[in-house]
Request: fold
Amino acid sequence: MYSDSNKNQLIECIKTLSSEAIHMLLTLALRMIDVENITITICPYCGSEEIVRNGKKCGKQRFLCKSCKRTFVTTTHTILSMSHSPASIWREVVSDTLQGHAIDYTAERLGLSHPCIFGMRHKFLLALQDLIAADPVLLNQVAELDETFVLDCFKGKELSSEINRPARKHGAKAQKRGISNEYICINTGVQRNGGVVAEATNRAKPDKSELTQVYEGHLQDSCLVLCDGLKSYNVLKEIAKCSIQDIATVCKEEENFYHLNTVNNFHSFIKGRYDFYRGVATKYLNRYVTLFTLAWQQSGTILADLCSKLFTPSTTNYFYGNQGVKKERLLII
Ligand SMILES: [Zn+2]
Reply:
């Protein structure tokens, strides 16, 4: 128990501290609040509910599973594992990432370094890819499929000898007109009032194998696929019993229904985010594409849903270390 005089003494002490010391103190206080608030219900290793408290480890509550005899802490298997930052800071990073803020903005707002926020953001993006892959989007009813193109980007890296052009300045236009090899193609499929599937595969328009890679397991048999007539989309009939309609061949009266407005709307969203970031390093593009699919459909409870899934131990391991950030699921084209 504390008295009011203790509390006043603490406030007076804090006033004399440097801003760095206040930041450290705040981090510790938030961590203490986090530890109090996390509810553990299952063992992250075997899923058993037979768990008991078992002392503390590095300030975190430790648990023992009576079934598999393993011990774990409140952050095991979560994106917070091995992190110096408490859940409240992670929550801010997730929130800023969903809203499309730049890494520097978040770093300054939270008083942390750019590399620290970069690492946290990418660990979140990798976990997000796992979360979405575990519950795959199935396009059904009417789905609009199309591609959008973004300029490639080699942020933070010397251009390799294979890329035969000088580096572009931020915000500069492509050197060639039209769709050249400077562009990366993002394949996008949007169900009207439904889910979104998107993945970058290559530079040119997608061929059959690339479309199979993107849409296999994501198309319901009865789905009506609307596209712009690119022949390779016919391959989709081999991966699902869907029907395909080229919107260019419909008559004027039917254009109210046979259109690609929904998917074009998603393309505008992607372009807006991409331009705001002044490009996304191409190797990381698919991590961001996954984020865009979610951010575009953003519902009111998305932040709370993500935090509860990624911050609470479960049998799926959502933890990625710095090596994972450097090596996992890079787009190499
Ligand atoms: Zn267990």
